[in-house]
Amino acid sequence: MPNAGTRRRAPQVLGVRSDTSSETLQRAYRKRLSEAKGDKARTAAVEEAHSRIMMSNLSARMKARADHRLLHCKTAHTVRVSSLHRRSRPAHGGEPRGAKHLAAGVG
Questions:
Q1: With bands split at pLDDT 50, 70 and 90, how would you rate the model's confidence at 1?
Q2: What is the pTM of this model?
Q3: Cβ-contact 96, 87 below 8 angstroms
Q4: What CATH fold (topology level) applies to the domain 4-88?
């Protein structure tokens, strides 16, 4: 079971910063694994630290993607709704388009 100390110090276990690139993270992970060869406790700590950082990075990317999609959907919906409202109200101040035909029973 992971403890809070390991969670806070995951970057220090691998010897990297928390915002490091994935390539640097992989190199540090492999280096620390080779150094910990034969020591099960240390190997487990290295693997746990690597997993925590990778999952944290993945979560951040997925959240950013979801935020972007949500923003895009809200913007697209607003544009569609506002364009529909524009079409239903005539610019000349009279009745909406098609109202005369509907009133006359045409169409």
A1: very low
A2: 0.57
A3: no
A4: Helix Hairpins (1.10.287)
End-to-end CA distance of the chain: 71
Specify whether the CB–CB gap between 14 and 53 falls below 8 A: yes
Residue spans of the domains in the chain: they are: 4-88
**Residues 6 or more apart from 101 whose CB is under 8 A from it?**
107
Joined together, the tokens standing for residue 102 give 């509907």
Q: In the predicted model, what is the mean pLDDT of residues 47-68?
A: 87
Helix extents (H) in 1-107: 4-8, 10-14, 22-35, 40-88, 99-104
- Our CA angle for 72, 77, 82, nearest 5°, is 130
Nearest to 45 by CA among 57, 55, 56, 35: 35
53 neighbors 25 (Cβ within 8 angstroms): yes
> In one letter, which amino acid is 11?
P
CA angle 56–40–28, rounded 5-degree value: 45
